[in-house]
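Internal tracking record. Fields below are filled automatically when a chain is submitted to the structure queue. Please do not edit lines marked as system-generated. If the sequence contains nonstandard residues, flag them in the REMARKS field before resubmitting.
Queue: standard
Priority: normal
Entity type: single polypeptide chain
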Amino acid sequence: MPAHLRAAVFVAALCFPRAGSAAEPAPAPRSARDPADAIAALIDAHLAKDWEARGIVPADRADDGEFVRRVYLDLIGRAPKAAEAREFLDSPAHDKRARLVEHLLTAPGHANHFAAVTRAQWLPQAATNFQLAQFGNQFEVWLRDRYRENTPADETVRRLLTVGIAVNNQNPRFRFVQPVSGNAEAAMIVGFYSANEGKPEALGAAVSRLFLGLKLECAQCHDHPFAPYTRDQFWQFAAFFGELNPLGGPRPGFVGPLPPQGDRNTIGVMGTERTVSAAFVDGSAPEWSADKTPRQELADWLATAKNPYFAKNMANRMWAHFFGIGLTDPVDEPGENNPPSHPELLKELGRAFAGCGFDTRVLIRGIVRSKAYQLTSKMSHPGQADPRRFARMNMKGLSPAQLFDTLVAATGFREPAFMRAQQNNGFVQPNNPRSEFLAQFASSERATETNTTILQSLMLMNGKFIGDQTDLAKSELLAAIADRPGWSTEQRVSNLFLTAFSRPPTPAELERFTSYVERGGAKNDKQQALADVFWVLLNSPEFLFNH
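SYSTEM-GENERATED OUTPUT FOLLOWS
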C-alpha cells in the first residue's frame, strides 16, 4: 500500500472508531439503592461540611477532557488514545462519565494495572531483587486473576494468609519457602513469603502494615516512640507466623495454647530470653482449636467486616490511589501524630466498603462518581492549596509504567510482546524502551510530590525513544497526521493536542502553534515544525502529570 494511503488509513482508525467497537462504553447499571451512589454521597457530604466550616470554596468541575484522561490513567494505567478521547468528548450522553467508568472496570487493562500497583505495594522487593523477579511475576498474575474476577478484598487477603506453604530449615542460613505439593495457587503466592524470608517478624511487619495500616515494625526493638504499640505487641503479632520458625525436632501436631503448641503460636523476643504467645493488636487472642493453624486464626480475625483496622485501611489505600494522598497519610502510620484529615469520613468509608462485601469495584465507582473526584486541578481559591482538604484534584506524577504506556498510546508505538514480558527482571534490558523507562523513572516519592530529575528530563528530551516517535521518517502516527489529505494546519495541530492531552487546544494555543507551523519553524519546513510541536507536547508538564 502506498505510504500516503497507509497514513490515511492510520488516521481514520485513530480518529473515527468503528460503530459497535470494543471501545464503546457499556451502560452503567444503576438503581435507587446503588451502594456506589451511597458512597459518593457520603464522600461529598463530609467534604462539603469540612469546606463550609473552613471557608473553602471548592474548585470547578473538571471538563470532559481533563476527566477522561484522569480516569483512564487511574483505572487502566494509561491515558486514552486519540480515538478513545474523541469518542468520549463527542458523546452527547448525559451519563457518559459513569458509562466510561463501567467500561474501563471491565477492560483487561484495569485488572493488569491494579495487579501491578498492588504487587508493587505488597511485594516491592521483586522490583529490585533479581532472585525475586520471577516470584513477583507469578504473584502479579495471581493478583490479576483476583481483579479480573472481582474477588472481594477480604477473600484475597484471606487466601494470601492461609495458603499452604512450608519452610525448608535444613540450612539455617538459607530459609527456602515452598508451596505445599500440588497447590497451584500456593505456587503463585509463595513469593510473598519468600520476599519476607519466611521470617515471622518480617511477615508480621508486612501483614500489619499492608492490611491493618499499622507500622508495628517500629516497635520491634523497643516500644513505639510515637504510637501506643509495644515491643511485646509486635512479637505477639509475629507469633502468628511462628510455625515457620526452624525447629530442632519434629513439628508438633497438637494445636492449643499450651506446649507443645508453643512451638507454633509462640515466638522468642529477639535479644531477650522471653517468649510471647500470638495475640491480636487489640489485645485479644484466638480461642485455639485443633482445626485451625495460627495463620488461619489470624485471617479469621483480620479479614472481616468486624475488624475496623482492615476496612478503614483498605478503603484509605484506595482513596490514596485516586487522590494521590490518603485520608491518613502516610497510609500505614496512623496515630496521635498522624490523625486522619477526615476521621468520620474514613470511618464511614471503611464501614461502607465492608457493607458492600469488600467489593472493590463498588468502592471505585463510589469514589469516581463523587463530586470531589471530578473537581478540576486548577486552583481558583486560596483554600484549595492544602492537598488534604481535597477541594481540588491533586496533581499526581505518572508512575514509570503509566508514563511509558501513555507514550505508547500517544505515539502509536507498536511494542513487541517480549519487551513487556522482559520489562525489568531486576536490571535494565538492552534495547527495551519500557525497561529503560521503568529503571530511569523509578521513584519512592509520593505521587503528589513527584519531581523530574535532570537525567529523566534528558531521557525525555534527547532519548532515542522520544526522538524516534517525533521523527517524521520513523513515526507512523506523526506521518499520518502530517500527510492527511485535506486537513488544515489547525486540524493537524488540534489532533496532536488530542493525541497528547486528550483535549483540543485552547484558542491561544491553537493560534500560537499553528503560526509556528505555518512559518516553517526553525528550519523553514512545515512538516518538521509539526514534529517540533509534537515533541514539545510530549515533554510538557501537562503530559507528565495526572491532573
